[in-house]
Design goal:
Strand content of chain B: 25-35%
Helix content of chain A: 40-55%
CATH architecture of chain A: 3-Layer(aba) Sandwich
Distance between the termini of chain A: 38 Å
Number of domains of chain B: 1
Largest interface: A-B, 33 and 34 residues
Largest sheet of chain B: 4 strands, mixed
Strand content of chain A: 15-25%
Order of helices and strands of chain A: HEHEEHHEHEHEH
Strand order of the largest sheet of chain B: 1-2-4-3
Number of helices of chain B: 4
Helix content of chain B: 25-40%
Distance between the termini of chain B: 24 Å
Radius of gyration of chain B: 16 Å
Number of strands of chain B: 6
Largest sheet of chain A: 6 strands, mixed
Oligomer: heterodimer
Structural class of chain A: alpha/beta
Number of strands of chain A: 6
Strand order of the largest sheet of chain A: 2-3-1-4-5-6
Number of helices of chain A: 7
Shape of chain A: globular
CATH architecture of chain B: 2-Layer Sandwich
CATH topology of chain B: Translation Initiation Factor IF3
Number of domains of chain A: 1
CATH topology of chain A: Rossmann fold
């Protein structure tokens, strides 16, 4: 490479570093089985441009035990295109008992292995909080929203002054009550969706662009 | 001699907790809870300390020995006034109850009430 080319490359890198806006890095958080990976998969299906998924989903808690990041996902909403890096995180919990996995039909050794991996996943999810520009907090709208995980995630975002979007998931289920979530955390925007059925996703993308764009 | 079985409940004042550094608080809570105590903190932890407590609890989990903690505190009161929204001020003075997950079970929780069941079974 001659001197002029080298100069051009260096200048371009420096220019990009100085002026190019870095994509916001957004974490998908929530308790186990709230539908975080289902939401991540839905976003990738709608905007990923490939058949790739965030991860597998299961009715057994702690299916996601490692954070997974997908970069530069372009989402069109409100007449604009925003580009986000999205991190699907393992479900946050304050307790993990391997007996709960055994009750789901897993063997003793499988349950202990899953339990160990799940604890590591929670630690990974907590550590990611330091490196994010915002959070999508997924709640199961058939469950009581006043859980410690929700309180802690919201408190962390407020203390760091970072944007937060609450997703009231599973509105396709008959006992879903997203209004209870809105009532619990009225200071933050909330979007009711069914990530599984794709219900409410247009409103979700509009809220996403507004919060993180 | 009569032996009385029960569960130790420690009510910890704001003064005691506020003298400790963040790591000291988290270490203290985990050590006490692992002994089987239920702690009620007059002033809860701040959100970063809560996250650190979750992280350290996960490191302490051992099958058939310690399955984690049950922790409940009220959500912070949202200041919906114009100034409150502008400065995003929040109160972190929140009563918090923490205990071993196999002995403390939350029955009901809303903005103003935490109802819990404490059991002696381990």
């Amino acid at each position: 490479m001659n001197m002029l080319k080298r100069f051009k490359v260096s200048f371009s890198k420096m220019f990009n570093k100085l002026f190019k806006k870095k994509d916001a890095c957004i974490g998908i958080y929530g308790p186990p089985n709230a539908g975080k990976t289902t939401l991540g998969n839905r976003i990738l299906k709608d905007w990923g441009g490939t058949e790739e998924t965030m991860g597998s989903v299961s009715h057994i808690a702690h299916e996601t035990r490692h954070a997974k990041r997908r970069n530069a996902i372009s989402i069109e909403a409100n007449g604009h295109t925003i580009s986000l890096d999205i991190v699907d995180t393992p479900g946050l919990a304050t307790k993990i008992d391997f007996h709960d996995f055994m009750e789901q039909g897993m063997s003793d050794s499988e349950s202990k292995k899953r339990s160990k991996e799940a604890t590591e996943g929670v630690i990974e999810a907590v550590k990611w909080l330091d490196d994010l520009d915002g959070v999508i907090l997924v709640m199961d709208s058939t469950e009581n929203p006043y859980t410690q995980v929700n309180v802690t995630v919201i408190g962390n975002m407020e203390a760091r002054n970072l944007p937060l979007l609450i997703v009231a998931n599973k509105v396709d289920l008959p006992n879903a009550d997203p209004a209870v979530i809105k009532e619990a955390f009225p200071q933050h925007p909330m979007v009711p969706v069914s990530a599984l059925e794709g219900v409410g996703m247009d409103t979700f993308y509009e809220a996403l662009a507004k919060q993180f764009g | 001699m009569i032996y009385v079985q029960g569960i130790q409940l420690d009510l910890i004042s704001e003064a005691k907790i506020s003298q400790m550094a963040s790591m000291e608080k988290v270490r203290y809570i985990i050590d006490e809870v692992r002994k089987g105590k239920i702690l009620v903190l007059e002033k809860g932890l701040n959100p970063m300390e809560e996250a650190k407590l979750i992280e350290m609890t996960m490191s302490a989990i051992q099958p058939d020995v310690f399955s984690g903690i049950e922790m409940q505190s009220y959500p912070a009161n949202a200041d919906t006034s114009l100034l409150g929204k502008f400065f995003k001020k929040q109160s972190n003075k929140r009563l918090t109850v923490i205990g071993p997950a196999n002995q403390l079970k939350t029955l009901k929780k809303d903005r103003n009430l935490i109802s819990a069941l404490v059991s002696a079974s381990k």
